[in-house]
Amino acid sequence: MKERITYIHASDSDFHPKQVNVGTDSVRVEALKAAREEQLRFSYQELPQEQNTPIYLSNKSSSRLSVPIYQYHESLPSLKDFIIYVQQKACAEGDYQCSSTVTRLEKAIYLDIDYTAESRELILTSFHHESPGSGPWNEKIQRRQKSVKTEVGIFTDEEATDPHELSLGGFSTIIGEDAKLKPTRFSFPSRHHALPPTSNSSFHATFPTPTGLHPILRLTFPTPISPPSPESALHTYLTLPSPIFIDKYQLSSPNFLASKNLRAIRSLHGETDLEAPDWVIRKWGSTLLLELAPPTQRYIKSTTVDEKWHADIPLHLRYLPPAADRESGIDVVWPVVFWACPAGDEEMKLDGNPFDRVNLGYEGLFGPQTVFYHLLPVPVAEGGRLVERVKVPVMDLGETRWVEGGTVGVIVLGALWVVWKLLRVWLREWWEKDTRVGKKVQ
Question: 224 preceded by cis ω (within 30°)?
């Protein structure tokens, strides 16, 4: 087994190497304000017997590999059951460090479980943006066994010499092998980059009011907005909850798209039924990858510096269950906005990033040599949430009894009316028949 623990602290933090004490079989970290990633690698032979035959849940082929990539993604409300399972199956009796490490997963921002078919390794990766107690990290990292290689690193970001790369600098040590921290600096190609915080690299998202049943998500950008390269295309990726959906037929008209500063739908997955109410939707919602149409250089030259432009994305609401106050609220997370650009260098190994997480979203919708430059989301209030709340009119729960009673009444009256019409026909036929019989008797 291999273990890698990485701390990433801000470049302007007051970190000092004295906060890390390297021992013969442990490393103690004190008062360290940083994000933390922990990765465990298990070989095929180290897996529990019931798990040493991997179950491939889905298959996504890749042109870069000679073997397919198998992946499965599930959003769980809690990791408690998983934590108990790992403590019982993987942690030896009395191994408090193992138990404590697994328990900490409950506060993790994410947990990735990957199986690499090429190296036949199970990889567990967890990430915390801060310590579970919302303070600095104070912990002792003990080497589990002599056969386990445990590497600890404390890094911060540094300016890279190549614009397509990220650079980290700091200190690292291998427990049991190194007697002190070693200065370390390394660079690696990265798929994702944050554009510098300039006036033309940000955006704002909002729903113009009143929203009604057909809200419009408006993305506002400053002018001018310049791509990182001439081949770059501006995209937005939306994750929509089940009460909101996209009408793909509406967004198929080139003239309509142009009027909204949109270019084309590149991908749409999930629930897209145009008529179904929310209570019959089984999935969580849908995702949309949409290419935007920034203004041309001619338009930019004719506008002032302070003028902004926006892209309007038409959305639609499903019918929601009744509520007590005739209104329900839906939280819509801000979309991701980015430039998708070809890497330029076909030999650039983008999969060399040790912190890369791929095939979890829109990355798989682009080519393997695509680099993403992200625009900075800027809320109206400083420190505000990147979430918009849409108010949806619904039926008042207190008035549903009148609707139910009225519906039953209408059905009963309708049934009586049908019976009455049928009865009239039967009586008319009976009267005419009886009259004909009487005439024959006379």
Answer: yes
Strand (E) or helix (H) holding 152: strand 149-158
> Which string of DSSP letters, residue by residue, matches 329-346?
EEEEEPPEEEEEEE-S-T
Write out pLDDT tens, residues 155-211.
998 888 887 788 999 999 999 999 999 999 999 888 888 887 665 788 999 999 888
**Cα 358 to the chain's mean position, in Å?**
12
The pair of structure tokens assigned to 120 is 């036949």
Unique residue bearing structure tokens 């510096």: 305
Tokens of 420: 């009455």
C-alpha to C-alpha distance for 226 and 232, rounded to whole angstroms: 10
For 57-107, what is each residue's pLDDT tens digit? 333 333 333 333 345 455 567 788 888 888 887 777 777 777 887 888 888
Distance CA 136, CA 34 (A): 7
CA atoms within 13 A on the CB side of 20: 25
In the block, residue with structure tokens 């929509």: 240
Give just the sign of the alpha carbon dihedral 158, 161, 167, 168.
negative
Total residues found in the chain within this entry: 442
